[in-house]
Automatic annotation (TrEMBL):
PANTHER family: F-BOX ONLY PROTEIN 3, POLYMERASE DELTA-INTERACTING PROTEIN 2. InterPro entries: ApaG_domain, ApaG_sf. This is Co2+/Mg2+ efflux protein ApaG. The gene is apaG. It comes from Flavobacterium luteum. The lineage of its organism: Bacteria, Pseudomonadati, Bacteroidota, Flavobacteriia, Flavobacteriales. One of its GO terms (biological process) is error-free translesion synthesis. Residues 3-128 form the ApaG domain. It comes from the Bacteria.
Amino acid sequence: MVSQITRGIKISVLTTFEGTYFKNHKIHFAFSYQIIIENQGKDSVQLVSRHWEIFDSLNDIEIVDGEGVIGKKPVLKSGESHTYSSGCLLSSPFGSMKGHFNMINFTTTKNFKVIVPSFKLSAPFALN
């Protein structure tokens, strides 16, 4: 698990290799990841959008931007956390992801970015 704290918001990531399958006559490597967002600050905050950079060792970087996470825009009071799971497909058994969440602080009404640390996506059978 990798973790990072930005402005009182701790992001932790746990990844899992889910397997391979064929789609459009091409093999794909499926990975899931669980994100834990913990508000260790004193103010209530809301996650409003996300930005991902997905690195695949055989492809260009894929950029994904969107509202919320899995259809939600969680509000976190001080001491609260939100956990969600998602996934991605790679065309190789190796890659990584990194990004950030755009948040709003309800006390100051200011927007800020929370860094999601880079995390590796690797199929165990492909490692030495």
